[in-house]
């Protein structure tokens, strides 16, 4: 594991957004939000904005969520977590890796970066400045070692409070990211969960604004993403249960460690942390349907991911017939057709990939491909006189 500064990551994402023509206005705090049947009126700083839709992506203390009155339900914290960038005067006293201690846990996955958890019910997340002296006291208290902080570069605190909006949409206002769900940032799942929300909602909202999709497509955002968020929150709670500094948790860790020591257990654990086990409940019954599309390596040297960057749905055809190409033509620019061959087709003859990279339909048999693919495409792209 390597730490990445949030500011550096945000710079990359902002650069990409601006390259796509997004206008980012910073420092404009939301002061009012009123919606009606036709749209939403927003006052943010000096600017008054009227929009057809509003998405609250404004973090754990979301002003959008509070203005609309979304219910944010969940559980209270068991610990205070600290992310620290520092130099220890006696670094040799603290070894690498995750170390369980009488009052909590200290993890050091690269020199100079520490993650500390103190099981104090979240009392340490009190808004007070994290000075060098306070951090030094924290490290000594949790570790029981005579640690001294030579230089403190950065410090922040957080908790394992786990809450989720009971709904992700109220009228013309939706929530995504930390505004929709918060939990302990263990395993880096929070960032991935938020990006998953954006990937799922972005193309559906754009298609709804254009009026090119069947009615009700936007409702599938909550239907697909809310269960994913709930599973991550429960996963986070389970991780916290394993980290408690008590005999019951130590016994539970032994059991889980035995399970992870098996091939199936390790694969299941990795699949949950990486998100590759996420599957949306779609009508198609193929094992790939509802999952992130495999990044096929094509014979021309490209990979599937390279062909999804323009935000369109993609019909991948390994069968070489003309029927699927004709189907794609009926959808104009909304559906991209790609005839290719791959080093490993995984037994697939053709598949339809949504703009968010999720397989909407797949088939292992060449006969009647066009009819089945057409039905799947119509479900989220709208009917085009098929």
Describe this structure in words.
The chain has 386 residues and is an alpha+beta fold. It has three domains: 32-73 and 163-245, FAD/NAD(P)-binding domain (3-Layer(bba) Sandwich), CATH 3.50.50.60; 80-159, Alpha-Beta Plaits; 304-381, Glutaredoxin, CATH 3.40.30. It contains nine helices and 18 strands. The protein has a five-stranded antiparallel β-sheet with strand order 7-8-9-6-10. Helix 4 packs antiparallel against helix 5. It is globular, with a radius of gyration of 24 Å. The chain starts with 5 loop residues before the first helix and ends in a 5-residue tail after the last helix. The mean pLDDT is 90.
Task: Summarize, please.
Helices cover about 35% and strands about 25% of the residues. With about 375 residues, the protein is an alpha+beta fold. The protein has three domains: about 30-75 and about 165-245, FAD/NAD(P)-binding domain, CATH 3.50.50; about 80-160, Alpha-Beta Plaits (2-Layer Sandwich); about 305-380, Glutaredoxin (3-Layer(aba) Sandwich), CATH 3.40.30.
């Amino acid at each position: 594991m390597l730490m990445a500064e949030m500011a550096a990551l945000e710079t990359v994402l902002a650069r990409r957004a601006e390259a796509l023509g997004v206008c980012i206005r910073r420092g404009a705090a939301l002061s009012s939000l009123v919606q009606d049947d036709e749209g939403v009126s927003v006052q943010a700083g000096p600017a008054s904005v009227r929009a057809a839709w509003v998405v609250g992506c404004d973090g754990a203390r979301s002003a959008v969520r509070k203005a609309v009155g979304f219910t944010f339900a969940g559980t209270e914290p068991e610990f205070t977590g600290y992310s620290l960038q520092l130099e220890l005067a006696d670094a040799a006293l603290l070894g690498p890796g995750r170390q369980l201690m009488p009052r909590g846990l200290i993890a050091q996955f690269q020199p100079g970066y520490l993650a500390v958890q103190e099981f104090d019910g979240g009392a340490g997340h009190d808004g007070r400045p994290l000075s060098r002296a306070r951090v030094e006291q924290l490290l000594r208290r949790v570790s029981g070692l005579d640690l001294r902080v030579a230089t403190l570069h950065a410090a922040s605190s957080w908790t394992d409070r786990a809450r989720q909006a009971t709904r992700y949409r109220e009228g013309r206002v939706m929530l995504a990211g930390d505004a929709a769900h918060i939990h302990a940032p263990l395993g880096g799942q929070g960032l991935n969960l938020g990006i998953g929300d954006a990937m799922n909602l972005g193309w559906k909202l754009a298609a709804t604004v254009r009026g090119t999709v069947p009615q009700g497509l936007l409702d599938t955002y909550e239907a697909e993403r809310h269960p994913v968020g709930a599973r991550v929150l429960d996963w986070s709670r389970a991780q916290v249960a394993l980290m408690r500094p008590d005999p019951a948790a130590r016994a539970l860790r032994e059991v889980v460690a035995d399970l992870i020591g098996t091939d199936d257990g390790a694969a299941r654990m990795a699949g949950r942390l990486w998100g590759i086990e996420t599957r949306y409940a779609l009508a198609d019954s193929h094992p790939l349907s509802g999952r992130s599309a495999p990044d096929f390596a094509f014979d021309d040297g490209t990979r599937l991911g390279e062909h999804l960057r323009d935000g369109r749905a993609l019909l991948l055809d390994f069968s070489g017939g003309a029927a699927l190409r004709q189907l794609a033509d009926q959808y104009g620019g909304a559906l991209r057709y790609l005839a290719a061959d791959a080093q490993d087709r995984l037994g697939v003859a053709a598949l339809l990939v949504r703009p968010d990279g999720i397989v909407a339909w797949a088939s292992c048999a060449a006969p009647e491909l066009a009819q089945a693919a057409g039905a799947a495409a119509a479900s989220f792209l709208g009917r085009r006189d098929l």
